[in-house]
Amino acid sequence: MRDAVSDVPIRFADVGLRIRDVTILDDVSITLACAATTVLIGPNGSGKSTLLRLAMGLLQPTSGRITWGGRADVPPTRRALVFQRPTMLRRTVAANLRYALAAAGCPRGVRGERVADLLALVALRDLGERPARRLSGGEQQRLALARALAKEPDVLFLDEPTASLDPAATKAIEDLIRTIAAHGIKVVMATHDLGEARRLGTDIVLMHRGRIVEHAGTKEFFSAPRTAEARKFIAGELLV
Fold it and tell me: For the chain, what are the domain ranges?
């Protein structure tokens, strides 16, 4: 069993990222707290995906400091990231999950039970023996979420998880995200869909040009935005 130490809250303190003299993130300070679903919004190139990768530990900041549960330089064993277009292994749905469980250090003797539980959670129980690459886009995204949950993470990062999905598949993913959050897993999610942000977010972070422009509770953000950038973005006007 794991000890009680958690990777949340995640704190960014004056974090910057520069690549070849290009500023990707600029002086970002934010706390990703427990018991909330944080939704990142903003135009393309605003830094949403970069912030997720930094929080996951896939990138290192060139300035500032990131801590996980008050600790720095923590390996990402308690964090999981699902990309917009997840890669499916060339094996069955169940075998994808067995691989993820083995990689997470799950004891061999309980993997079968864990596979069954995860398949049930993401509504893929009847597709366990189907090749993963033959699933629909929405089914693949649900499998990707199940693989991420195999790590039993404290925090789950989602990068545009419903992009290009039809309404029914989008609803299935959103329902699953609500279930995951209800189990006490911190969710940090990037999306372009303002309706989705309203439906899922406990708090909203608006990013623009590598900076955090506004961070507020969802109701407050949409009913009384404080900044001109937030008012323009909510109105559907282009931020440049």
Answer: 10-88+152-234
**What is the widest separation between alpha-carbon atoms in the chain?**
56
Strand 203-208 versus strand 37-41 pairing type: parallel
Alpha helix segments (H runs only) across the chain: 48-56, 93-103, 108-121, 137-149, 167-182, 194-200, 218-223, 228-234
Superfamily of domain 10-88+152-234 in CATH is P-loop containing nucleotide triphosphate hydrolases (3.40.50.300)
State the CB neighbour count (10 A cutoff) for residue 1: 3
Taken in order 94, 97, 102, 103, is the CA torsion positive or negative? positive
Angle at 185 between CA 206 and CA 133, to 5 degrees: 85
Quick one: pLDDT band at residue 1, thresholds 50, 70, 90?
A: very low
- Which helix (H) or strand (E) covers residue 3, if one does? none
What is the pTM assigned to this prediction?
0.94
Q: CA-CA distance, 124 to 130, in Å (whole number)? A: 10
Q: End-to-end CA distance of the chain, in Å?
A: 49
pLDDT digits (tens, 9 = 90+) for 25-51: 999 999 999 878 999 999 999 999 999
Strand partners, 206: 41, 214
